[in-house]
Amino acid sequence: MIDLKRNSKKIPVKAPGHRTRSTSIYTPNQATDFKISRSKFSDFLTCPRCFYLDRVRGLDPPGTPGWTLNETTDLLLKKEFDQCREAQVPHRLFSAYGLDHVVPFKHEEMDTWRNSLHGGLKLRHKDTNIVLGGGIDDIWQDTHTKELIIVDYKSQAKNRSVDPVEYLEDPYHEGYLTQMDFYAYLLSGMGFAVHPTAYFLVCNADRSKEDFNKAMHFEEALVPYQWDSSWIGSEVDRMIALMNQREIPAPNESCKNCAYAEQYSQALHPQTEEKVIEEPQTQQLGFRGYLKTLLSGETADNRKP
Ligand code: SF4
Questions:
Q1: Whole-angstrom Cα distance, residue 61 to residue 18?
Q2: Rounded CA gap, 182 and 233, in Å?
Q3: Most buried among 6, 151, 267, 270, using CB within 10 Å?
Q4: Domain count, the chain
Q5: Is residue 86 domain-resident?
Q6: Does a structural domain hold residue 181?
Q7: What is the pLDDT of residues 216-262, one digit of tens each?
Q8: CA 280 – ligand 1 centroid, Å
Q9: Same domain, 164 and 130
Q10: Alpha carbon of 58 to ligand 1 centroid (Å)
């Protein structure tokens, strides 16, 4: 997608391509605290190279537009669940799922934990300077066991009804499961007893209606998920080891962005057979090689593709 950098007046300005806030950039082996969000941890799992270039080398990747419709369902659900939280009663959805003993969790930090930008759940990783964080959608409580239940609101528009098994097995939802495992890791690490079942509250927009008529209708479904956070700690260790190294890791070969960047580079600077023979070897590096050379600090003008 095309992402233009704009100033506070929404006027397009030159995009520097790198981050300007030094607190967003980690220096290998730095002693001061550094925050890693749930989404950056997911980036690390998807492509260590992009994560590294972003967090350690300070490259500013193109963004995506806000998901305002999805955010609106989240916002309205939050209001709805807050009413039940205040009254400490089960939500209208619960009885159909045998959850009459569950209520939205009431805690003075709830708003902070739900604020992914300026708050979130927080946990220092072991005795390191890495502070893990993540804004959670909601937490409910089993009134029998007092355990906390992790909840994530999801919005979608699919023709078929939500099937819990299909939902969890969908490869496109793999990141959702990671998200739950990560929140469970944080909340448990913060000292709370966490119920083994988390829930996705899925709002599925009905596309079969005859008209819009100023309203969109949704099917609501709770998808239970047995979280497993046993793997998170070792992956965070691996992530920290990566952040402390100087070498740039390998890319994800399925990534269309990298493939595009490579094709883009080749389209602008075609390497004919004749040229390859005549030019210095560095001309043959291609985009990935060039990027590696550039970021390892060995740049020279004649290495530009
Ligand atoms: S493969 Fe390339 S563009 Fe894609 S996520 Fe990794 S470094 Fe970024």
A1: 8
A2: 9
A3: 151
A4: 2
A5: yes
A6: yes
A7: 999 999 999 999 999 999 999 999 999 999 999 999 999 999 999 99
A8: 27
A9: yes
A10: 14
For the cut 60, the answer to whether the pLDDT of residue 277 exceeds it is: no
Region 43-59 average pLDDT: 97
Alpha carbon of 43 to ligand 1 centroid (Å): 10
Same domain, 83 and 229: yes
Same domain, 229 and 260: no
Within 10 angstroms of residue 280's Cβ, the number of other Cβ atoms is 9
From 184, 206, 238, the end of a domain falls on 238
* Span 77-116, pLDDT tens digits: 999 999 999 999 999 999 999 999 999 999 999 999 999 8
Note whether 101 and 169 are same-domain residues: yes
Contact 195, 147 (CB under 8 A): yes
pLDDT for 69 equals: 92
**36 Rama sector, left if φ>0, alpha if ψ -120 to 50, beta otherwise:** beta
Task: Assess whether pLDDT exceeds 70 at residue 305.
Answer: no
Q: How confident is the model at residue 63 (pLDDT cuts 50, 70, 90)?
A: confident
Structural domain containing residue 141: 68-238
Say yes or no: CB of residue 47 within 6 Å of ligand 1: yes
Residue with tokens 């890693």: 36
Q: Whose CA is nearest to atom 7 of ligand 1?
A: 50
Q: Is 173 in the pocket of ligand 1 (CB under 6 A)?
A: no
Any idea what DSSP says for residue 17?
S
Give 254 Cα–ligand 1 centroid separation in angstroms: 9
The answer as to whether 173 is a domain residue is yes
Please tell me the residue having the least CA distance from ligand 1 atom 2.
Answer: 258
CA-nearest residue, atom 8 of ligand 1: 50
pTM: 0.86
In a domain, 144, yes or no: yes
Structure tokens at 203: 């709002």
Mean pLDDT of the chain: 89
